[in-house]
Amino acid sequence: MATSPRQANKIFELLSLPELWDRAFAKNISDEIKKEIHYHQYKWHIFSYKKKECLEGEAARDAFDILTKNELYVMYQNSPDILFEYKKAKDVVSANFDSEQDIYIFDKSFKWTYVHTHESMCGPYFYNNELI
Predict the structure, then answer these.
(1) Looking at residue 88, what DSSP letter applies?
(2) CB 44 within 8 A of CB 115
(3) What angle do CA 59, 65, 71 make, to 5 degrees?
(4) Cα 36 to chain centroid, rounded
(5) More confident residue, 81 or 51
(6) DSSP secondary-structure letter at 60?
(7) Higher per-residue confidence, 51 vs 15
(8) Could you give the dihedral angle defined by the CA atoms of residues 76, 57, 107 and 51, in that order, rounded to the nearest 10 degrees?
(9) How buried is residue 18: exposed, middle or buried, by Cβ count under 10 Å (0-12/13-18/19+)?
């Protein structure tokens, strides 16, 4: 059964944006695995430890850049209270986040996420719930 818009709004009101990200992108990762990969330190470890299939590096950048973007959210791993909402995101590209660290960009319906890490050897990552 599909969630009605009214129910979806109630869920959004009850959970924080980081919790909603967890539900959308890490829902199939057990608590045991999360502990093993230090998920609480960096959510993007689900990608770097290959627990979720995703695009990496230039392929991730390309996928994000060609994506049609309308509205999206931006959050930081170490500052969960700092959240940004882009209402007109059509011109947002991966290069906009090159100087950022441990930043998560995702659409308002939680279909995809783009992650730019603090590690030059890890990421960026692009994951799409609908394609993978």
Answers:
(1) S
(2) yes
(3) 130
(4) 20
(5) 51
(6) H
(7) 51
(8) -80
(9) middle
- Residue 27 contacts residue 52 (beta carbons within 8 Å): no
pTM recorded for the entire structure: 0.86
Give the three-state DSSP class for 87: coil
* Six token digits for residue 111: 């279909």
Q: How many CA atoms lie within 13 A of 51 on its CB side?
A: 21
86 vs 62 pLDDT, higher one: 62
Segments of 1-132 assigned E as strands: 55-56, 72-76, 79-86, 103-107, 112-116, 125-128
What is the tens place of the pLDDT at every residue in 88-132? Answer: 899 999 999 999 999 999 999 999 999 999 998 999 999 998 875
What is the token pair recorded at 53?
């299939």
